[in-house]
Amino acid sequence: MLFEGPEGWTEFSPFVEYDDVEASTWLEAAIDFGWAPAPSTVRQSIQVNATLPAVPPDDVPRVLDAFAGCRTVKVKVAELGQVLADDVARVAAVRHYLGWEGRIRVDANGRWNVDEAEHAIHALAEYDLEYVEQPCTSIEELADIRRRVKYMGIPIAADESVRKASDPLEVARAGAANLLVVKAQPLGGIRAALALAAEAGLPVVVSSALDTSVGISMGAHLAAALPTLDFDCGLGTAALLAADVTPTPLVPVDGAIDVRRVDVDPALLDRHAASADRAQWWLQRLQRCHALLADPSRQPWDVSPEG
Question: What does pTM read for this prediction?
């Protein structure tokens, strides 16, 4: 769902299965980006990674060719219906595509238990992993797998344990991750994500979901405002879309995207508009989520040491 505020276009795109409480945080981010000036930036372009879905090895070149100049690839692993051998073959194909100078990170979306994660990391380690993202679901499991593979020098990154947690800082306090993956929408906006990153004291990777270029722009402004940015960001996913809402999408060029607001084309909005029933579903969801934001008893998460 897109709307235009005084600062420009903004996006509200929580996944359809999310309840209103979780989705309301995404609305908070959309309002922040559309109605408040973006924080000052320290960089004008963001190096991004390519994102590879759980495709067969033969499809790897076709997918990665869409991410022009990207030196880093995030590979989806632990896909339902697949086995570890499929993951190994996919990662091997990416290493062949990139050469040994490229960087590979894998993302299991929390689908392994600790023993499975340890076995998988051993199997994939020969392909020189930059890090493993959310290998397990719980913070306790993340802490355990981090201890088990520490001697291998492969960092553990937390994603769902940050963006879907009632306390996004718990994973950092527990020492369960080497770095955090942060997304502007699920955390309530750019300022909230910046506050979390500062309080956590860990390196961060800014990422996105399957946003349009409008949502990607929000993530790019977050990445541009961070004091330090040591990792390529997961903000190249507009390259996976069949279409976008702007004639100048934020897709990677020479491995990077610009930090800019996106102008939306009304003709493209009309062409890709949802059905009347679906539009009504989104409008009703917007009303419910906005009512939650307006509730004076609502308690957003607190990044202060006491909170």
Answer: 0.93
